[in-house]
Amino acid sequence: MKKIIVACNSGLGTSLMIRLNVEALLKEWGLKAWVEHTDISSVDTFDADLIIGSNYVMESLQLAKDVEVIGLDDITDRQYLKSRLLGSETFKQWLAM
């Protein structure tokens, strides 16, 4: 199962909003993935394929493993999120399957 983690400082509002947009895009593309939102300090507890969050938060993330991270300059614009996901190597692989 594909796993996406959406993170923000508190793991509440921002990450939930981005998560809802990610889930809507996945549905639009017919992709199935497990999507969870969390606070930045809990990101390492998930075995994610892709991590998404605001650029500010993603720049402070220290990951031990090789996982693609998408930092967003605009966290409210779904079209911007869509373009960032379509440019992601992880998403390109998923869409090619």
UniProtKB/TrEMBL annotation:
Enzymatic class: transferase
InterPro entries xrefs: PTS_EIIB-like_sf, PTS_EIIB_2, PTS_EIIB_2/3
Chain ranges of the PTS EIIB type-2 domain: 2-93
Keyword Iron tagged: no
Documented EC number(s): 2.7.1.-
GO biological process: phosphoenolpyruvate-dependent sugar phosphotransferase system
Keywords noted in UniProt: Sugar transport, Transferase, Transport
A GO MF term: protein-N(PI)-phosphohistidine-sugar phosphotransferase activity
Matches recorded under CDD domains: PTS_IIB_ascorbate (cd05563)
Record flagged with keyword Transport: yes
The name this protein goes by in its record: PTS sugar transporter subunit IIB
